[in-house]
Amino acid sequence: MKILVCMGNVPDTTTKIKFDSEMKKLDTNGVQWVINPWDELALTRALEIKEQSGGKIEKVSVINVGQADAEPTIRKALAIGADDAFRVDANPKDAYFIAAQIAEIVKTEKFDIILCGIESSDFNDAAVGSMLSEFIDYPSVSAVSSFEFKDGNICLKRDIDGGKETISISTPFVAIVQKGICINPRIPAMRGIMMARTKPIKVSVPVATDSLIEALTFELPVSKAACKMVNAEDTDKLIELLHGEAKVL
Amino acid sequence: MNFEFTEEQLMIKQAAKDFAVRELLPNILERDAKCIYPERQVKMLAELGFFGIMIDPQYGGGGMDSISYVLALEEIAKIDAATAVILAVHNSLTAYGIEHYGTEEQKQKFLPALASGEKIGAFLLSEPEAGSDATSQKTIAEDKGDYYLINGTKNWITSADHGGTYILIAQTYPEKKHKGINAFIVDRNSPGITLGPHEDKMGMRSSDTHSVMFTDVKVPKENRIGEDGFGFSFAMKLLDGGRIGIAAQAIGIAGGAFDLALKYSKERKAFGTEICNHQAIAFKLADMAVKLENGRNLILKCAWLKDNGKPYSIESAMAKQYCGDAAMEITTEAVQIHGGYGYVKEYQVERLMREAKVTQIYEGTSEIQKIVISRALLKD
Description:
The complex is a heterodimer.
Chain A: E1 2-6, E2 9-11, E3 33-35, H1 37-52, E4 59-66, H2 71-80, E5 84-89, H3 95-109, E6 113-117, H4 128-136, E7 140-150, E8 153-160, E9 163-169, E10 173-177, H5 190-196, E11 201-204, H6 235-245
Parallel strand pairs in A: 1-4, 1-6, 4-5, 5-11, 6-10, 7-10
Antiparallel strand pairs in A: 2-3, 7-8, 8-9
Helix pairs in contact in A: 2-5, 3-4
Chain B: H1 7-24, H2 28-34, H3 39-48, H4 66-79, H5 81-101, H6 104-115, E1 120-124, E2 140-143, E3 147-158, E4 163-171, E5 181-187, E6 193-195, E7 209-220, E8 224-225, H7 231-267, E9 269-270, E10 273-274, H8 279-307, H9 313-338, H10 349-357, H11 366-378
Parallel strand pairs in B: 1-4
Antiparallel strand pairs in B: 2-3, 3-7, 4-5, 5-8, 6-7, 9-10
């Protein structure tokens, strides 16, 4: 069996986000790029499952739709433990475009399990996983927070309103995973970093796909007012602030 | 000249940083207060390969360069200087010493366990009456034919208890003075080795430091490093490299304190504005940043020289002296910027200031570094 983990290349989550003067394009100067945090959790869980599978999972691959500058992030995925990587050489335009590109690779490479992070930490579309499953006609399970693989049986848990749902599923499928899928993302070991040099990144050209979305402009959120400390005994002052200033009472 | 880091160097730096923030920062004040050895974290660092970072892959190491090593040490020391010194002694001294001066048999026998972190390295040079004056070794290694018989006491030994593989410096021919000194690889569990109590130190409190007593300890002859009488020269060569590691540790401590001071200065208000807007504070930050940059550049130059097989003895003395002194100055200023909050433990800079002090003392005091530097200048 083969697992594919879809990974986005996103600005580090502590980045101070800036846009160009027309507020149309992210200013990438000085930005440090990382694996999308949910995808990194998915990759960590995929590797754990592979290690526990007793050889049933032969390999874990990663795929990224992005340009050559995404390769350091892809190589980090290889250092963490992915066996190989695919990069579709394109500037990703929207979720539909990305899903179409990944679908094209899946059609020839035949993966049994595909893991996608629930959303990307930059654009938060939360759409690639579902679109991909439609493109390749795999069933998909969303909001997966637990993935167990025992004796060849797959058990997924997903969050539903007020609780959790346990699902048994057979391959192939797409699991759209969220927090809880593993405890912490894996830190690459020296051996992994050394071996990442020798693992292949297969680069392919994108298939022609229309972009369905065009971002017209971006707005930064209004900065939050500073926290005001009120003395614990001074409830009148607290009520006055909540009523008069915050207007929540 | 090329000031760009490679992708791998950056990945190792980030891995060390992620590890430090996730695994070393929690409970650090408790480990410091109660002198708790970071056992779980050391095991994890071993699994990640940090104990074999520079060791040749043929002996189970990561085969990374010195630049990667100092970047990793700096990131670890930013958060936890005690864990950084465990790594520094193990990698710069014990593992490096065996790999570069040991026989092929010694490498095959000892390096794999050091590379995997199964055995932690310790370096036994200092004695109660031989610190900076390392030539006056009182520990005796008597040549008994097929083994050496060791008697004496070593002081201030990092990882004395948790360490598994010691490099011991001892005197075989007292009449030959420093030319009679030998170096040996000694198993920590050899019969006749006893430890003094855990030293109650100012900083680095969670690394285990003890005196080590040798009473009729037998060390096989094949465990001697190099020719008969090579020990002192060996120790000095090792310390040239060790200084780079301690300089990196020092600048890590300083960088950790600087980051906290910078953040605090942007949050704390006084006289109606954040204190970073007062020139008295802003100029302190500028001075600290310049020292950090100088220190880092000195360290990276040493690491580059070492990686390229060029001499680095003088440069590493300069880096050690500068970075040790800078660490003390920067951490002291970080406490000053924090004011009263800097004087209490919760804000971490108090601890970092205590950690910094020893970087001016161990692996050659700042004064010894000045001797090394000035003697080189005045030679001929």
